[in-house]
């Protein structure tokens, strides 16, 4: 599954634009007074200014990177952001996922992950550049009932369940694109920040039907 476009809300539109365009050096695809879009490999990542004055939306999402470039990507990021730590580590190996990842906050408090999935083999050489970012590969979706929503996504979108425990943490999709379903009280790894429910819109490449999660602000097409 490829996420063609992912839309999140923010109360710090200008700050996020400066961060993604000038700090991370991602390509600005388009912008207007209330939105901007940057290219993340195959995915257009869009932020929309929220109308709710007191709301401070934040999300967890991940970028797939060329798996051979993990150390180089980490060094690239370390010059630009503060990498998040857990137990004094700032890089994380997920043996069951055959992957390595690093995390950082953006100005809105979004928890951004660069993940190298070693099952997706790389032919990339030389230094890490943003051409080594493949796509937005994870979109975190906090929910009230993980099992129920996983069943809805599985049936509505014909997507498989991918690892997870089915109760408090359940990815849905594949290594190119995963909805990360978590209990709304869960803390996003590697932080102590509890997941929050905020509007999300995802356009899936090749999908020709719309579906949603009942009673939650998540839209898919």
UniProtKB/TrEMBL annotation:
InterPro entries: Glyas_Bleomycin-R_OHBP_Dase, VOC_core
Gene3D superfamilies: 2,3-Dihydroxybiphenyl 1,2-Dioxygenase, domain 1
Record keywords: Dioxygenase, Oxidoreductase
Every VOC domain range: 2-117
SUPFAM superfamilies linked: Glyoxalase/Bleomycin resistance protein/Dihydroxybiphenyl dioxygenase
Domain of life, source organism: Bacteria
The keyword Nuclease belongs to this UniProt entry's keyword annotation: no
MF GO annotations: dioxygenase activity
Coiled coil start-end: none
Protein name according to UniProt: Ring-cleaving dioxygenase
Lineage: Bacteria, Bacillati, Bacillota, Bacilli, Bacillales
